[in-house]
Amino acid sequence: MPSPLTATAAWPGVITHYRDRVQITQSVAPVTLLEGNTPLIPAPALARALGQGKAEFELFLKFEASNPTGSFKDRGMTAAITQAVADGAKAVICASTGNTAASAAAYAARAGLQCVVLVPDGKIAAGKLAGALSYGAQVIAINGNFDDGLRMVREAAERAPIALVNSINPARLQGQKTAAFEVVDALGAAPDWLALPVGNAGNITAYWLGFTEYFNDGITSTRPRVLGAQAAGSAPIVHGRVIEKPETIATAIRIGNPARWNEALLALDESDGEITAVSDAEILAAYRQVARLEGVFCEPSSAAGLAGMAKGVREGWLDLDGQRVVAVLTGHGLKDPDTAIKGAAEPVTIEPRIDALLGLLSLS
Ligand SMILES: *Cc1c(COP(=O)(O)O)cnc(C)c1O
User: Fold this and answer.
1) Is the CB–ligand 1 distance for residue 176 below 6 Å?
2) Which protein residue's CA is at the shortest distance from atom 4 of ligand 1?
3) Residue-wise pLDDT tens digits, 284-304
4) Model's pTM, two decimal places?
5) Which one of 95, 164, 223, 342 has the lowest number of neighbouring Cβ atoms within 10 Å?
6) Contacts of residue 105, Cβ cutoff 8 Å, sequence gap at least 6
7) Ligand 1 atom with the shortest distance to the CA of 199
8) Which phi and psi angles does 347 have, rounded to 5°?
């Protein structure tokens, strides 16, 4: 009997689609939620706004919010959990600002593994906590930040039979680098610039790994210049020193001592890139702008790369004229409903009468 054709049948997830490139075990079937294959959305109106009359360029948004748990973390987690299963793990652990927790919890649920996540108490967006809890993880809130959590889970994984799935786990990068492959596969070439937020620096490292691999194999003849953006209150790489008490509204990048710091510096150096610090106000402005101009709703951290572009063009050190730019939107706006609602106009309440409604309409 022929198997029924389903809408998702064509895309098998990143491990299977890029099976010759994702360097993890092939001894077990991938633990997958069919992550990856995310949209690369043209954003002409946003490009005009970010160009500020100084630059005309082509902009695409790599919308990683379309992954199964709403962030790019799923790309790495399918690989890390598959490897953990192959290694015989019964439980996994991670520290997280939220999205890694939600992703680990989902993939662990799918694999039948126990999952423990450490999150900073009170500094995790509601949608991320909701995800981690719903997928059945044991969520532990610590009176500390992500950096404290990472230190603790590293030690826990050494002392207890539990696998670490933070992005210091090399399988994570193997999965995450597939985003770079998808960008090149979709455009037929590497873009001139890749803009993205930088927190623990796993993603910038993974993109550079992916672009470099395609470049070395002759699939693309160029690699992009990389524009990294950190939040001003947690910008260790920009300032060249550990930030003891990182602060920002962009909680996904509220990290003071990135685990992939050296790799990020290498990506910036080899790509002739830039890294810049953007204020919370700049992040929020870009976050609202992309939603209103393009109908694309990302979480605040995701807009840091866009804010970095706006800043670079405004200050004159980033020449985007005639360039093709990909900005990575790392996570979904629905992850952080509180920030979305706080900054918006309150809905008007009316009686359920048509005259009350018509009185409010100002249509041209
Ligand atoms: C994890 C995350 C980041 C930061 O990525 P790193 O790999 O830690 O640099 C940025 N945005 C979102 C939405 C994230 O979940």
Assistant:
1) no
2) 199
3) 999 999 999 999 999 999 999
4) 0.96
5) 342
6) 115, 117, 131, 132, 134, 135, 136, 137
7) 9
8) -60, 145
